Amino acid sequence: MKAAPILLGRMIEPTLALYGDAYERVDTHIQELLDVTGVRYGLLVDRKGFVLSHKEALWAPRPPALDSVATLVASNAAATAALANMLGERTFSEQIHQGENGTLYVESVGADALLTLIFDGSVPLGKVKVYAKKSITQISAILDEIKDLPPMDLGEDFSAGATALLDDLMG
């Protein structure tokens, strides 16, 4: 998991807390998307650059640094949103970056997340887009369910225990 950057003494937190059943369901949808399309890597990234969920195809080579991909995707999405605004658009919902050997496809999942897919030239972009739209609908519904849930409160005992454990580990 990505270490949260510290900004003015406060840690930046992910936009969404994806855990438990919601995490499992999102993970399943991403895996199904990879299985049906042949995409190598699928990530659900929040707009702050945190990886919320990721899957990779069993046959895929070693993945790129997913935390770096997530941060750059979120930054690029923010820049693209600014461009859309300058051009009088509410948003550009998808981004496609095609290279000689691979493609990066990013599409908004509601207001807070981005589905990021990485694949090679053997995978038709049209197929990815069709199946991604279906997955986005399903994942978006899950994210809508968890939006109104109260944040997980681990309590003071957890915080004190974690601090003590870290102090013991770090000396």
What attributes characterize this protein structure?
171 residues; alpha+beta; five-stranded antiparallel beta sheet; two-stranded antiparallel sheet; 46% helix; globular
Question: Cα-atom Rg, whole angstroms?
Answer: 18 Å
The biggest beta sheet reads: 5 strands, antiparallel
Given the C-alpha coordinates, what overall shape results? globular
Instruction: Give the overall average pLDDT.
Output: 85
Low-confidence stretches: none
Classification by helices and strands: alpha+beta
Query: Strand fraction band?
Result: 15-25%
The side-by-side strand order for the widest beta sheet comes to 4-3-7-6-5
Query: What is the element string, with H for helices and E for strands?
Result: EEHEEHEEEHH
Characterization of the model:
By secondary structure, the chain is α+β, with helices and mostly antiparallel strands. It is 46% helix and 22% strand. The chain is built from four helices and seven strands; from the N terminus they run ββαββαβββαα. It has helices at 20-37, 66-86, 125-147, 155-170, and strands spanning 6-7, 10-11, 41-46, 51-56, 94-98, 102-109, 113-120. The protein has a five-stranded antiparallel sheet with strand order 4-3-7-6-5, with helices on both faces. It has a two-stranded antiparallel sheet with strand order 1-2. Helix 1 packs antiparallel against helix 3 (125-147). The radius of gyration is 18 Å and the shape is globular. The two termini are 23 Å apart.
A few lines on this structure:
The protein is 46% helix and 22% strand. The protein has four helices and seven strands; from the N terminus they run E-E-H-E-E-H-E-E-E-H-H. The protein has helices spanning 20-37, 66-86, 125-147, 155-170, and strands at 6-7, 10-11, 41-46, 51-56, 94-98, 102-109, 113-120.
